[in-house]
Design goal:
Rossmann fold; nine-stranded mixed sheet; 6 helices; 13 strands; disordered C terminus; gamma-glutamyl-gamma-aminobutyrate hydrolase activity; Peptidase_C26; Gamma-glutamyl-gamma-aminobutyrate hydrolase; hydrolase; PuuD-like
Length: about 250
């Protein structure tokens, strides 16, 4: 059986290897690739590119990976000094997302990817979560994951995919404030939104943590299953939301 093709959105960041230092490179943590491969998929790394979303026509699933913050201009807010955004990623990933929703390709958003989903569906973000919840437990220290309890809405896609899961890892300083037209289906004990989904589509799910770094990356395995089971049908319009296509505010 042919493995489903799972596109993983990538970063462009300075990188060091061998004798090369500070070279701009297209990057994605290998953990995403390993998780897709272990679930039976074929990972395809997608660098930022907002020219068009044509590549989605050959994909069976789309994984919006974690990373830097979303440009607050995308959701109509001034930039907090602690926001570290990447407008090129926003533009490229929103283009991919619009094409994936049109083609009904299964979508999973991880951490930043979940936040981008919320913005695309008309939502907003908390730009610095400790100001809201009063602690740093969701990002304890640079390069250090936190851990916390999580609960899911009964009967939701999140609850089905994550049956038996009551705790997750955590590394983020921003979070969804308003999910827009997405349904909130997961929460941390402090009320931080941990999962969102589009109940009107077979598989559009966002999770705030990093399942690729957990022993059993259930959301990624579920994305690959949904991609394998997908039967392409008539194309449908993407959600009625200008965030999918508008440029960031200047």
């Amino acid at each position: 059986m042919t493995r489903p093709l799972i596109g993983i959105s990538a970063y462009v960041e300075p990188a060091d290897w061998a004798v090369w230092w500070g070279v701009r490179a297209v990057l994605v943590p290998e953990a995403y690739v390993r998780a897709v491969t272990a679930a039976g998929g074929r990972a395809v790394v997608l660098p930022p590119d907002d020219a068009d979303g044509d590549v989605v026509a050959v994909l069976d699933g789309l994984l919006l990976a974690g990373g830097a913050d979303v440009d607050p201009g995308r959701y109509g807010q001034p930039r907090d000094p602690r926001t570290d955004d990447r407008p090129d990623r926003d533009a490229g990933e929103l283009t991919l997302l619009a094409a994936a929703l049109t083609a009904e390709v299964p979508v999973l958003g991880v951490c930043r990817g979940m936040q981008l989903l919320a913005v695309a569906y008309g939502g907003t973000l908390h730009q610095h979560l400790p100001d809201v919840v009063g602690h740093d437990a969701h990002r304890p220290a640079p390069g250090v994951y936190g851990a916390h309890a999580v609960r899911f809405a009964p009967g939701s896609l999140a609850a089905t995919v994550l049956a038996g899961v009551d705790g997750v890892n955590s590394y983020h300083h921003q979070a969804v404030a308003d999910p827009g037209r997405l349904a909130v289906t997961g929460w941390a004990a402090d009320g931080v939104i941990e999962a969102v989904e589009d109940p009107g589509r077979p598989f559009v799910l966002g999770v705030q943590w990093h399942p690729e770094n957990e022993p059993d990356p259930l959301p990624i395995a579920a994305l690959v299953r949904a991609a394998r089971q997908r039967t392409p049908g008539a194309l449908v319009a993407p959600p009625d939301d200008t965030a999918l296509r508008r440029p960031a505010a200047t």
